[in-house]
Structure prediction request, 214 residues.
Amino acid sequence: MELWFDPLARSGPEAMAVDEWLLEHAANPVLRIYAWDGKWGSLGYFGKLSDAQEGLPGVNLVRRWTGGGMVDHSRDWTYSIIVPKNFELARMKGGESYHAIHEILTGVLKAEGGAPALSPASGKTGGMCFENPVEFDVMDAAGEKLAGAAQRRGLLGLLHQGSVATAGDLRLRGELFAEHLAESWWEAEIKPDETRVAEIVSLKYGRKEWLERR
Prediction:
């Protein structure tokens, strides 16, 4: 697995486009850890823009390619896992891969202190992501949602976009996460094709039609 600490804080559309570029080009699984440029929130592919505007007032919004609810990225720890189609994690069913990744993340957060645990099924979907835990989300000892994610599968593989409510130590958490996700990992310096990234932004994530599709 390649561990990439993206050195650039990016706008919402650009952050989403980089993940899509990675899905197009990655030869190995990639754990990407990144920051946001400004105050951003994201909503899932099926989410309603009006709900996001009400739930996250005064925040720039971007629609993800993955599902899930609304997430305020102003203080979270954000990561993506990109898995090409020929790797086992990409061949798992959605619930299986979600459970596998969050079980590992739970162990990482336990190592930082506290007592996180996976949530049981709640039947809730959409809304504010950290107010509506779903099965296999990560909960803290007080029963509050600590980490959630959303996934998309396609012909190229798996895209898993996740958020942890507590910032933590960016580097130590990332290294420990990578260590438990893969049999071997190395820190990579990935240089996205910025021309292609800009093209994806202009065709999808930066378009008003994409944001307002629901």
In short: The first helix runs from residue 12 to 25.
